[in-house]
Design a protein that fits this description.
Blueprint: E1 15-19, E2 24-26, E3 29-31, E4 34-37, E5 40-42, E6 45-47, E7 50-53, E8 58-60, E9 63-70, E10 73-75, E11 78-85, E12 90-92, E13 95-97, E14 99-102, E15 107-109, E16 112-114, H1 118-134
Parallel strand pairs: 1-4, 2-5, 3-6, 4-7, 5-8, 6-9, 7-9, 8-10, 9-11, 10-12, 11-13, 11-14, 12-15, 13-16
């Protein structure tokens, strides 16, 4: 009966969930793909992909995602590989990350824990090698 209906794995590089501007969502979200918040969410977010908080987005949430980009505001803890806070972004909560970027004007208030994993070590080694190449002999 359900022979042709096979569960398909979502692509974490594609956004499958959008909370639009002017919308308020209350509850937890779990997704295999990426999530974009341009409205407001009150509840935790778990994504195997990326989470993007748009410029007008507000997340009163704990977030666990592959990568997180903040143009709006997060009030809650964030656990992610790479966290980018734009010049308009605000994060109030504790973070556990491997890579952190904060543009001028961006805000972070809380404690941070840097997770050094294999990919972070590889990135650091690549940067060192690049610097060596650019140094005149």
């Amino acid at each position: 009966m359900f022979k042709g209906n096979k569960m398909k794995t979502m692509d974490p590089n594609k956004t499958d969930t959008l909370i639009g501007e002017g919308s308020i969502f209350e509850g937890n979200i779990k997704s295999e793909a990426s999530i974009r918040i341009d409205g407001k969410i009150v509840g935790d977010i778990y994504s195997e992909g990326d989470v993007i908080i748009g410029e007008n987005g507000v997340a009163l949430s704990n977030i666990n995602a592959r990568n997180t980009t903040v143009l709006g505001k997060i009030e809650g803890n964030v656990e992610t590989k790479k966290l980018q806070i734009s010049s308009t972004g605000k994060v109030h909560g504790n973070i556990s990350i491997s890579i952190l970027t904060i543009e001028d004007g961006g805000e972070f208030e809380g404690n941070s824990k840097m997770n050094v994993d294999q990919s972070t070590t590889e990135i650091k080694n690549e940067l060192k090698e690049e610097k060596k190449k650019n140094v005149p002999a």
